[in-house]
Every structure is written in C-alpha cells, then in structure tokens.
C-alpha cells in the first residue's frame, strides 16, 4: 500500500514542477475528446490550479525559508471567497456558492501562475548567485 502513495507523490511532483505540461495535456486531450476548446481550456485551468498551489507553496517555503506557503495560499483563497461572496450578496441578495468557488479557483489559477513565475525566477537567481 505504501508504494501506491509514494508513486502518487512522485507523479504529482513531476507534474507540478512544470505545470505547462499537464495544462497542455489536459487541454489537447479534452479538446480532442469533446471538440469544445473553451471547455477544454477551463478544464485545463482547473487541473493545473491544483498542481500550481502545491508548487507555489513549496517554492514560497524554499525562497523565504518558512513553512507558511500552503497556509498563506489557503488564507488568500478563503479571503477572496469571502470578499467575492460579500459582493455577490450585496448585488444579487443571495449566494451562489458553486459559482463563487469556481470563480476563486479560476482566479487562483492566474494568481498562482504569476506567483510561480516570480518565485521560480527568485529561486533560480538565489541558487545561481549564492556561493
């Protein structure tokens, strides 16, 4: 049973290191299967967000020598959900939780992509220029 967990961790680590690869695999695979490119793009974003969250958390921990990466990301996502829910409640008078969660998850894709690029450049710079 232990080898299943170890295999899962290794596959996740490989896919999370270069999130462009799973994005392209899901996009082209789902687009070929359904023929709907917009839905394939959204599906690829959703899958890649899960990988980016783990990768950005590890990069944050390595770059800043802390253990707050995953907790900080979850805090930002929860605060974003609360703020978006407040706006939706004030505008429409009710809450549509699946819509709020989908919006936060997809906004998280863009935020995590930006953080991934920035933290990867900082991490590479630190490793190249420190003696």
UniProtKB/TrEMBL annotation:
The chain crosses the membrane at residues 12-33, 45-64, 70-91, 103-124. This is DUF3397 domain-containing protein. It comes from the Bacteria. The keyword Zinc does not apply. Pfam families: DUF3397. Keywords: Membrane, Transmembrane, Transmembrane helix. InterPro entries: DUF3397.
């Amino acid at each position: 049973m232990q080898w299943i967990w170890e295999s899962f961790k290794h596959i996740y680590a490989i896919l999370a290191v270069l999130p462009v690869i799973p994005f392209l695999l899901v996009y082209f695979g789902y687009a070929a299967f359904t023929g709907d490119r917009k839905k394939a793009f959204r599906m690829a974003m959703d899958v890649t967000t899960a990988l980016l969250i783990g990768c950005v958390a590890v990069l944050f921990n390595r770059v800043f020598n802390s253990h707050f990466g995953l907790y900080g990301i979850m805090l930002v996502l929860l605060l974003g959900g609360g703020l978006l829910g407040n706006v939706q409640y004030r505008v429409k008078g009710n809450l549509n939780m699946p819509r709020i969660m989908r919006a936060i998850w997809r906004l998280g894709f863009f935020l995590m992509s930006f953080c991934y690029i920035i933290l990867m450049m900082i991490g590479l710079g630190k490793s190249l220029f420190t003696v």
